[in-house]
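User: If only I could read backbone structure tokens as easily as an amino acid sequence. Underneath my words sits a plain record pairing an amino acid chain with its backbone structure tokens. This is the protein in question:
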Amino acid sequence: MGLSMKFNLVLIPISALGIWLSGYSTYRLLEQNAREEALLNARIMMEMAQSIRRYTVKEVRPLLTSQMKHSFLPQAVSAYAATKAFEGIRRAYPEYTYKEATLNPSNPINRALDWEADAIRYFRRNPDESEFSGVRNALTGNMLFIARPIQVKNPDCLTCHSTPTEAPAKMIAKYGDDNGFGWQLDEVVGAQVVSIPTAVPLDRAYHTFLSFMSGLIGLFLVLVSVGNLMLYFIVIRPVNRMTEMADRMSKGEDTPGVEVRGNDQIASLGRSFNRMRLSISSAMRLLEQTMDDEKPTNRSAPPATLDGNEEASRIKAP
């Protein structure tokens, strides 16, 4: 197994784990931020509705007081004005809905559903609370909502909601005398509710998450590629060259030195390799010279042999 393969076997799993942890934590953070952004938008819309309610009570209703004695004008009702204004906002933000949910409304369309009634009762049990938010189940999916209490603080409201005899005749003719009466001053009678499907912020978080992960994975691939290239040119290729030269030296071939650049560990290894090559070359030359010096220059002639006549004459001589 090569050094590059070992490097990737370590780098890729660690990087994949880091990407998974980063992706998980990032998605949770994006999901939370998207939810907070949706709630912020809902609060802005809620403030707009409350501003319209206050404007209607302080500016519009006094101008129509004299007419309200003889006829019922829904434009002077703060809940009606806020609902109509929100219909205009829904043209730009159709995913948001607004309702003036009331336990005992004059207009049946404003009657609180079960979960809205729970929010109203929550405000009754907790008079110091000014806001309540959460997630509810719906047929179309989960809904993120924010609710604020509707409290009877203006005595003029009791003109239409105290008893049927005090209410304008036109209102009785329009809505009847069975609902919307018996309200008390400072009583929490309903809740303003702004809702948005949870799929909207989650979809935003998901698309942002995909963009982030695409960039992160792309950066990871670039880093792995650059790391492998650096590993090859800085480590693997110089080591392969030194390995090839060492093999040639082991076969007795004359090899050039390794080109050394820089002051890192690979450069230090290259210098050591060059010193080793010079030492081996010097040792080989010295060994060859020594072997040449030990070769014999003259060989002694073998002793001459005497034939039979010469040997006989040497014996007979006095």
